[in-house]
Write a structure and sequence with these properties.
The chain is of the alpha+beta class. The protein has helices spanning 3-24, 28-42, 140-145, 251-260, 262-269, and strands at 46-49, 52-56, 60-64, 67-70, 73-77, 80-85, 95-103, 106-114, 125-135, 150-164, 167-181, 193-204, 209-218, 222-231, 240-249, 275-282, 287-291. α4 runs antiparallel to α5 (262-269).
Length: 292
């Protein structure tokens, strides 16, 4: 065996040994505590819970079981998140990190750019993500906010978050297929209504008022639209809701309801075109529903 081959084998052995030591001696607990502390410093009501952090290849880290909680309520729960820095960008003004992972039976991926802004209008941080295959009924926070009225649905869409010297903002577009909702009015509970599709655009210019600019739902049983705002408060469950909704039930669906619930026929027949209009006010933890 030539000297060159021997040195090559010893070199490969040394690299493998270093990788083994890096993996087994990786400071997972220290990183978990550091990440949790950083989140807590941004907002005392928020906490980050992780199971394990391990090195990844290409160079990066994989965070297993990362959950974001608002007090005791789980807002985001993931199976894993893999974060990979763009190595060359770490030496420049705009440091870039890509990430991907799985959550709620779906997938997400995106990019974060951390910059040193020169003016107030430049982003200090910009994060964008695309997600698909998310099972809506498995999002615990959404179920709690809706009073467990969401029966099914698959979510896809995108979100972009900006952080500047002057404040924070975000914009998001989402689409849900197979959305099943249990509609409860002050007079009755209707059977679960399934929508083929639901498209929404959500924006916030200051993270104080979240605007549901548009939300259109379409289905064989009913069509509808929802608009309005959520004025955020601390804690978040005290946030004020001001939403308006119009749900138009199709004639065949109304006929089926009238057969199963005779008392409902008078109420629905008095509604022009089978449209039920109602308002959602109150707070996230105690919403109130009233007919328009």
């Amino acid at each position: 065996m030539s000297r060159t081959v021997k040195w090559l084998l010893w070199g490969l052995y040394g690299i493998a040994l270093v990788l083994v030591f890096v993996y087994y001696l990786f400071p997972s607990d220290a990183l978990r505590e550091y990440a949790a502390a950083k989140v807590k410093s941004r907002n005392p009501d928020l906490s980050l819970r992780t199971k394990r952090i391990a090195p990844a290849f290409p160079p990066g880290v994989t965070i297993y079981g990362a959950d974001l909680l608002n007090k005791e309520q789980v807002w985001i729960e993931t199976d894993y998140i893999r974060i990979l820095p763009k190595i060359m960008s770490l030496f420049g003004k705009n440091r870039r990190f890509s990430f991907k992972g799985t959550a709620w039976k779906g997938n997400f991926n995106g990019q974060t750019i951390v910059s040193t802004p020169v003016t107030d209008n430049e982003d200090a941080l910009k994060a964008s993500a695309v997600f698909s295959g998310i099972r809506v009924e498995q999002i615990k926070a959404l179920q709690e906010m809706s009073g467990k009225k969401i029966a099914s649905g698959i979510l896809a869409g995108n979100i972009v978050y900006h952080q500047k010297k002057t404040g924070e903002s975000f914009e998001s577009k989402i689409a849900i297929s197979g959305l099943g909702i249990d509609i409860v009015t002050p007079m009755m509970k209707l059977p679960t209504v399934t929508f083929k599709s639901a498209d929404a655009e959500i924006i916030s210019a200051d993270m104080k008022i979240i605007q549901l600019r548009q939300c259109n739902v379409k289905g064989e049983q009913a069509n509808g639209n929802i608009t309005g705002t959520i004025t955020t408060q601390t804690p978040f469950e005290k946030s004020l809701i001001d939403l308006k909704a119009d749900i138009t039930l199709n004639p065949a669906f109304i006929a089926g309801i009238s057969k199963s619930f005779p008392a409902a026929s008078l109420f629905l027949n008095n509604k022009k075109g089978g449209t039920i209009s109602f308002k959602i006010n109150g707070t996230i933890e105690q919403p109130s529903f009233s007919l328009k």
